[in-house]
Specification:
alpha/beta, four-stranded mixed beta sheet, globular
């Protein structure tokens, strides 16, 4: 994982905790497992692209937070580039499906929020480069 991706992973949640926040006692989920799940979930999110933008949802900064729940469930707080996004119904399902490809994740629910609203400031440098914004 690049330094850029690591830095972005650490700032995904608007309150700045790590992307994966376990909803279990530390004894139930070792730190190594949290780190593996975090890396694997990021890799999975990087396979999901907005059909109109040639950048994945992770690099666009659309994934705000992932809460790991008991039984291998994840709640994914995410946003869209605009409330009237043409793929508003499809993109959350694509994110859920990607999360469920991760070993140890049995179910996923993407929750779309517009608070805070997405801005271009959430995009990684990689996304900006792909969109000729650097």
């Amino acid at each position: 994982m690049s330094d850029e991706t690591t830095a972005q992973r650490d700032m995904l949640d608007v309150s700045s905790p790590p992307i994966v926040q376990p909803d279990r006692e530390p004894a139930d989920l070792p730190p190594e497992e949290i780190a593996r799940l975090t890396d694997d979930l990021i890799d999975a999110f990087k396979t999901v692209y907005d059909p109109e933008i040639p950048v994945d949802v992770y690099e666009l900064g659309l994934i705000y937070k992932v809460d790991l729940k008991a039984g291998g469930h994840v709640d994914i707080d995410m946003t869209l580039t605009a409330p009237a996004c043409p793929v508003a119904g499809e993109l959350p399902i694509m994110v859920e499906d990607a999360a469920k490809t991760v070993n140890g994740i049995n179910s996923a629910k993407a929750i779309v929020t517009f608070d805070p609203p997405w801005t271009q400031a959430r995009m990684s440098d990689e996304a900006r480069l792909a969109l000729n914004m650097l």
